[in-house]
Amino acid sequence: MIEIYFVRHGETDYNRKGIVQGSGIDSDLNDTGRQQAQSFFESYKGIEFDKVFVSELKRTHQTMAPWLELGYQFELSPGLNEFSWGIHEGVVPTPEQRADFQQLLVEWSAGNLSHKVERGESPIQAWDRAKSFFSEIQNASQGRYLMCSHGRQLRIIIANLLGEDMKYMEKYKHSNTGLSILQLEKDQTGKLHLLNNLEHLQKAEKV
Predict the structure, then answer these.
(1) What is the pLDDT along the chain (207 residues), one digit of tens a residue?
(2) What are the sequence ranges of the domains in the chain?
(3) Burial code of 14-41, b = ≥16 C-beta within 10 A, e = fewer?
(4) Closest CA to 170 of 116, 109, 94, 129
């Protein structure tokens, strides 16, 4: 059996300001994000992983940085890169942009998964760049993997690994450093055992 621990990267200043980063903005974690990353590490460092995967964007590298202390080496996968939001990336949201985003969600939930913004990608394209990577993972006989990715891309990945239509992906929301655990059996769809768990942050608040 294959077990994947999916975690979204920690908070950035773009997250705090509600500005879309997508794949085109290679931002750093802020102080809160670094604290979230450390809290995640403290809660799960006792679990042994066969590999730790990150996207090509440094906010995932910084989120997983504490795991380097344990001797892990990062493996990069473009399939974990964030969804491309095209012209909306790095732009302070306007009423027009928010309306455009809401219309995009309407189109996707109606099954129009090739719909995209200017210079962005569609959910179909985002999964196309990820599915070969996950096919390789799924072909392994067993293993436990830690993967750090991004909010929209995690929705897309999890929906597909569960064998669901991507039009239902909105229910797989991920907060910063939210943890989801998914199990895969060879040639079978996955089973989701945990979604967007944030207990590690609640423990940190009590300390």
Answers:
(1) 899 999 999 999 999 999 999 999 999 999 999 999 999 999 999 999 999 999 999 999 999 999 999 999 999 999 999 999 999 999 998 998 889 889 999 999 999 999 999 999 999 999 999 999 999 998 887 899 999 999 999 999 999 999 999 999 999 999 999 999 999 976 677 999 999 999 999 876 654
(2) 2-206
(3) bbeeebbbbbbbebebbebbbbbbbbbb
(4) 109
Which has the closest alpha carbon to 77: 27, 135, 118, 33?
135
What's the CATH code, domain 2-206?
3.40.50.1240
Question: 76, 58 in Cβ contact below 8 A?
Answer: no
